[in-house]
């Protein structure tokens, strides 16, 4: 071989290597583009020149943390704020599953793709209200304003078929800690879920009593009914709040938790088993029965609640609210409404609706 021929071969090899490298990078780029949400097409990652970390953010790796949340059209701003708070306060590979109704999908997709949330990984699942037919009595006044979507948490393994462990969050929460910590909540062997107990510590107990909420089973279930008596549960057992759930979905499936919950819903629709004074959600009683003495505990700071009840602003100091890992505005007064406590905290995570349909009610300068 002459020297010239050798040079040509080397140049050819270099050219091939160069093409391979270019192609690989292009492939990776297209991977990244395709990995993101279907509607995010308009804002490509490399267009976000102004915030360089955004590009890095889009490739969060590591163990997937599945978070399930429901989205109700009238309070879509709540879901967006909750998701934003989870995402911004953690570097973990969070994947949201959002359960919603068909009519909400488009609005939600626009909100998540046209704003700074466009790197969030999510998938949307449509809730089928038929799921609940025959399990709720139509005439019970308690059910009048019940949102069918609140029952989605009974079906966690249905919506998360691939996950082994998952977090369920109500939409009226803000997460201030790293969600990875909540995810790592230890579930005892044989337990399908962890909840935050209503009398975990003296302070939580006082706060819940002060807010006029029941903190034991008697507040949720009618212990005069045979079906309840037969279970032999102690009426003064501490209740728990199902607004935040950590679930082991393997255990959930093995123990047929969903079937059991459905059984109690059906029975209640015939025999009215829930407490007459039930103030909290109708979601709670079946969970209390099925998870009686069979659930693990969530760190109280990971579910600081009752921010939506009257006087929350007096019960909690701003320092305590700041230190909380998760805040829950359960109760009547929502932080996107006019008269809620600590709505300034919620405002930090809210992202304006690009379509302009959802607007938090805020005092206008002329109001006072
Ligand atoms: C492209 O992706 C492949 C496989 O996913 C990976 O091995 C390679 O390091 C990536 N290259 C770059 C430049 O990111
Ligand atoms: C869901 O909505 C889309 C349009 O928004 C419509 O084409 C489709 O038929 C709807 N599906 C159901 C099951 O209602
Ligand atoms: C879930 O429960 C199964 C069955 O008890 C157990 O083998 C598994 O380790 C648990 N997974 C987690 C993440 O706790
Ligand atoms: C769960 O349900 C299946 C099918 O209905 C049944 O075969 C099984 O015994 C149940 N397991 C438990 C633990 O109840």
From TrEMBL:
InterPro entries: Glyco_trans_8, Glycosyltrans_8_dom-fam, Nucleotide-diphossugar_trans. Coiled coil: none annotated. The keyword Transcription regulation does not apply. Pfam families: Glyco_transf_8. Keywords: Glycoprotein, Glycosyltransferase, Membrane, Signal-anchor, Transferase, Transmembrane, Transmembrane helix. Its main location: membrane. GO terms for cellular component: Golgi apparatus; membrane. It is found in: Membrane. It is a single-pass type II membrane protein. GO terms for molecular function: UDP-glycosyltransferase activity. Belongs to the glycosyltransferase 8 family. This is Glycosyltransferase 8 domain-containing protein 1. It comes from Gasterosteus aculeatus aculeatus.
């Amino acid at each position: 071989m002459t020297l010239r021929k050798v040079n040509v071969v080397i140049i050819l090899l270099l050219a091939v290597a160069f093409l391979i490298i270019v192609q690989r990078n292009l492939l990776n780029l297209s991977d990244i583009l395709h990995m993101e949400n279907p509607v995010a097409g308009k804002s490509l990652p490399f267009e976000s020149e102004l915030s360089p970390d955004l590009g890095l953010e889009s490739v969060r790796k590591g163990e997937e943390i599945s978070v399930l949340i429901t989205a109700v059209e009238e309070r879509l701003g709540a879901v967006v704020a909750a998701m934003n708070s989870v995402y911004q306060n953690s570097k973990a590979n969070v994947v949201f599953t959002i359960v919603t109704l068909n009519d909400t999908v488009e609005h939600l997709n626009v909100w998540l793709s046209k704003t700074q949330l466009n790197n969030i990984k999510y998938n949307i699942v449509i809730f089928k209200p038929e799921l609940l037919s025959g399990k709720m009595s139509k005439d019970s006044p308690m059910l009048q304003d019940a949102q069918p979507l609140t029952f989605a948490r009974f079906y966690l393994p249905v919506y998360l078929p691939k996950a082994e462990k998952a977090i369920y969050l109500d939409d009226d929460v803000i997460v201030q800690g790293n969600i990875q910590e909540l995810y790592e909540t230890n579930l005892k062997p044989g337990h399908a879920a962890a909840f935050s107990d209503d009398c975990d510590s003296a302070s939580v107990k006082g706060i819940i009593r002060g807010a006029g909420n029941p903190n034991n089973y008697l507040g949720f279930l009618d212990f005069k009914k045979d079906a309840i008596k037969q279970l032999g549960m102690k009426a003064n057992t501490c209740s728990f709040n199902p607004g935040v759930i950590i679930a082991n979905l393997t255990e959930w499936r093995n123990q047929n938790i969903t079937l059991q919950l459905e059984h109690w819903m059906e029975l209640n629709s015939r025999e009215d088993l829930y407490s007459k004074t039930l103030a909290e959600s109708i979601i709670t009683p079946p969970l209390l029965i099925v998870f009686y003495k069979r659930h693990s505990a969530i760190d109280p700071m990971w579910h600081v609640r009752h921010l939506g009840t009257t006087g929350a602003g007096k019960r909690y100091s701003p320092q305590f609210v700041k230190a909380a890992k998760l805040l829950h505005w359960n109760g009547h007064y929502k932080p996107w409404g006019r008269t809620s406590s600590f709505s300034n905290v919620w405002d930090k995570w809210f992202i304006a609706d690009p379509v302009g349909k959802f607007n938090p009610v805020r005092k206008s300068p002329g109001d006072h």
